[in-house]
């Protein structure tokens, strides 16, 4: 358990790093300790990913610094895990504006909480001054069997593991000006502190998985990327829509399915395909581990993404450098040492 963070005393870089290490739990398997680089012995295929949180595009209104740390870790580890690797540790690079130095304990506490949840360690990294906050996470894992986006074949089953689609409701509230709905709290919690599929479940079902991707840029775009990489057609039969998303969409006069497909991002559900004869086995293992998983469609010959009975799904979602996305997440304004707004 992590106690409520108290502000750091203003210090220089070396002292701030030393204070951060009072929060992180060192990995006894790391060989160099606090040094110029980090080293660890591994057996298997090394899988790495870099993901950056930038306050100008990624900081949602109302998100606390601890949520920033949590999400940065989840984003990096998700890409490593979904490729079939057991996550081992992260390298953390942080650029801190002067007005956030005292509150940085909250940021590091969020990082530590996510690492504990996912069973990974902080190995080292870099810390410096910056005009805007950025948090870069390099996640490292080891795989015995890699799962790419390219392996889906006609006849496979399309599945989702994680949780019901929920964060599009939060994005509508925070970034699109939708009026508050009764289920808003659940959606906001999911957006601020996304949960990953349990690693122990995912690593256990890898032998059944033919292709995989995490949903971090919107469900429609995620499905298209999987279809394109595998050169197949994905037919969506159903989607696990959360009660909160459906209720909010109804209050806003929106189609819940359209909101789920086009309104989200950073859901971090795993979207994957399995051989048809392995479907029941995957669902049974999900139940054993307390993981929610659903069959949501099938793989056919051809191309594109379709919803059964409704037609083709547009290829759109979150893309950096797209004109509509510049500045969509407003920069934070610090109201207190611990809670940006």
List the helices and strands and how they pair.
Blueprint: H1 13-20, E1 45-54, H2 55-58, H3 65-82, E2 85-96, H4 104-118, E3 121-129, E4 134-143, E5 157-162, H5 167-175, H6 184-192, H7 199-205, E6 209-214, H8 219-230, E7 233-236, H9 243-252, H10 256-262, E8 270-274, H11 279-289, E9 292-300, E10 305-307, E11 311-312
Helix pairs in contact: 3-4, 5-6, 7-11, 9-10
Largest sheet: 7 strands, mixed
The CATH topology assignment of the largest domain is Phosphoribosyl-aminoimidazole Synthetase, Chain A, domain 2
**Run of helices and strands:** HEHHEHEEEHHHEHEHHEHEEE
Structural class: alpha+beta
Rg is 20 Å
Number of strands: 11
CATH superfamily membership of the largest domain, which one? PurM-like C-terminal domain
């Amino acid at each position: 358990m992590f106690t409520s963070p108290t502000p750091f005393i203003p210090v220089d870089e070396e002292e701030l790093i030393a204070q951060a290490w009072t929060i992180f739990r060192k990995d006894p398997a790391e060989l160099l300790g606090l040094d110029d680089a980090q080293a660890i012995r591994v057996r298997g295929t090394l899988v790495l990913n870099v993901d950056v949180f930038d306050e100008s595009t990624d900081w949602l209104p109302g998100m606390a610094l601890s949520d920033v740390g949590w999400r940065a870790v989840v984003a990096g580890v998700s890409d490593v895990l979904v490729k079939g690797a057991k996550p081992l540790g992260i390298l953390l690079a942080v650029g801190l504006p002067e007005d956030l130095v005292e509150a940085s304990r909250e940021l590091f506490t969020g990082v530590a909480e996510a690492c504990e949840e996912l069973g990974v360690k902080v190995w080292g990294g870099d810390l410096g001054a910056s005009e805007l906050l950025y948090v870069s996470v390099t996640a490292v894992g080891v795989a015995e069997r890699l799962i790419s986006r390219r392996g889906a074949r006609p006849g496979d089953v399309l599945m989702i593991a994680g949780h019901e689609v929920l964060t599009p409701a939060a994005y509508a509230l925070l970034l699109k000006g939708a009026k508050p709905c009764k289920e808003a709290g659940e959606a906001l919690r999911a957006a601020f502190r996304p949960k990953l599929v349990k690693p122990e479940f995912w690593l256990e079902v890898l032998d059944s998985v033919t292709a995989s991707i995490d949903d971090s840029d919107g469900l429609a775009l995620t499905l298209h990327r999987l279809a394109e990489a595998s050169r197949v057609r994905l037919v969506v039969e159903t989607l696990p829509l959360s009660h909160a998303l459906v209720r909010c969409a109804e209050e806003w006069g929106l189609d819940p399915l359209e909101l789920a497909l086009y309104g989200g991002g950073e859901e971090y559900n795993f979207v994957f395909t399995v051989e048809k004869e392995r479907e029941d086995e995957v669902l049974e293992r999900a139940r054993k581990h307390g993981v929610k998983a659903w069959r949501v469609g099938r793989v056919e010959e051809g191309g594109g993404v379709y919803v059964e009975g409704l037609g083709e799904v547009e290829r759109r979602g979150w893309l950096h450098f797209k004109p509509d996305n510049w500045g969509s997440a407003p920069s934070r304004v610090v109201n207190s040492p611990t809670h940006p707004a």
